[in-house]
């Protein structure tokens, strides 16, 4: 697989950042942790990882804007490009010693996500995608699953907790799907959930109340792997609305119908 110059920059930044995260993950019990909100922890590892990404990406493309989970928006001279970055997606997993977390880097050009990287430092799975060029896992082309029936589908989702999200709505959505699908999974890292849809491991994924850095890279991967991604209203406003649904064409359509019915109940 021949990567573009910009994707090489993103992969290199992710790999360098991963070295620090792997070290900190090995000493997870020693980390100094502070509360960032209900059940939403931020560690010194998280902050260091974002700074590493900022330094590496800014060195390669000094004018680009930067939107990160920890530092917010940092303006650049090139307003047409923005890095959208989650240095540690799956922070709660990380701090509990669960190896289901990743670095997520998306590049937005004039309002469109054009490149994405999702990297799990522990499994060393590197998911990459560029607009119009396909999606890959460790240089092998990936495609969304071809299953056509909800009864065969395994779907990833979120579970609102400790005051975050609409718990009653989520219960209705889950109750609706439990009667129709093969399984639900809650893994706790949105970017990896989307990457797993792109790789055909999950047949669908939906979540509410998430941020642009949780989904920017992953939504491009699903689309480049032949899948469909919308907000939960069926539109293309995921980043601003903060909710998302992904799957192949048939799964997406059927899941959207079921979830919209649950929302009206």
Detail the topology: elements first, then pairings:
Blueprint lengths: L4 H22 L6 E3 L5 E3 H17 L3 E5 L3 E3 L3 E12 L1 H5 L6 E8 L2 E9 L4 E6 L3 E4 L2 E2 L12 E3 L10 H12 L4 E3 L4 H9 L5 E5 L3 H13 L3 E3 L7 H4 L1 E5 L1 H16 L1
Parallel strand pairs: 3-5, 11-12, 11-13
Antiparallel strand pairs: 1-2, 3-4, 5-6, 6-7, 7-8, 8-9, 9-10, 13-15, 14-15
Helix pairs in contact: 1-2, 4-8, 5-6
Describe the structure.
- With 265 residues, the protein is α+β, with helices and mostly antiparallel strands.
- It folds into two domains: 5-141, Fructose-1,6-Bisphosphatase, subunit A, domain 1 (Fructose-1,6-Bisphosphatase, Chain A, domain 1), CATH 3.30.540; 150-264, D-Maltodextrin-Binding Protein, domain 2, CATH 3.40.190.
- It has eight helices and 15 strands.
- The strands form three sheets. An eight-stranded mixed β-sheet has the order 4-3-5-6-7-8-9-10, sandwiched between helices.
- α1 (5-26) packs antiparallel against α2 (44-60) and α5 (190-198) runs parallel beside α6 (212-224).
- It is globular.
Task: Give keywords.
Fructose-1,6-Bisphosphatase, Chain A, domain 1, 15 strands, single chain, 265 residues, D-Maltodextrin-Binding Protein, domain 2, alpha+beta, 37% helix
Describe what is shown at a glance.
With 265 residues, the chain is of the alpha+beta class.
What count of helical segments does DSSP give? Answer: 8
Indicate the structural class: alpha+beta
**CATH fourth-tier homologous superfamily of the largest domain:** Fructose-1,6-Bisphosphatase, subunit A, domain 1
Globally, the shape reads globular
Total beta-strand segments: 15
């Amino acid at each position: 697989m021949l990567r573009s110059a910009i994707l090489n920059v993103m992969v290199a930044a992710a790999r360098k950042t991963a070295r620090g995260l792997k070290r900190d993950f090995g000493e997870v019990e020693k980390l100094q942790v502070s509360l960032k909100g209900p059940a939403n922890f931020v560690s010194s590892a998280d902050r260091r990882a974002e700074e590493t990404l900022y330094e590496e990406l800014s060195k390669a493309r000094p004018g680009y804007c930067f939107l990160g989970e920890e530092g917010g928006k940092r303006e650049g001279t090139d307003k047409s490009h923005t890095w959208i970055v989650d240095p540690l997606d799956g922070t709660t997993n990380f701090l509990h010693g669960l190896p289901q977390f990743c670095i997520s880097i998306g590049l937005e050009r004039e309002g469109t996500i054009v490149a994405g990287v999702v990297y799990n430092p522990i499994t060393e799975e590197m998911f990459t995608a560029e607009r119009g060029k396909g999606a890959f896992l460790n240089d092998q082309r990936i495609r969304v699953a071809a299953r056509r029936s909800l009864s065969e589908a395994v779907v990833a989702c979120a579970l609102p907790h400790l005051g975050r999200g609409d718990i009653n709505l989520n219960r209705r959505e889950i109750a609706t799907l439990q009667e129709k699908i093969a399984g639900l999974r809650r893994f706790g890292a949105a970017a990896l959930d989307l990457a797993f849809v792109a790789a055909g491991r999950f047949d669908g994924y939906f979540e509410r109340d998430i941020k642009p850095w949780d989904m920017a890279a992953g939504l491009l991967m699903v689309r480049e792997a032949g899948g469909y991604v919308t907000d939960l209203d069926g539109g293309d406003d995921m980043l601003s609305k903060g909710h998302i649904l992904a799957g192949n064409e048939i799964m997406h359509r059927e899941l959207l119908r079921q979830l919209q019915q649950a929302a009206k109940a």
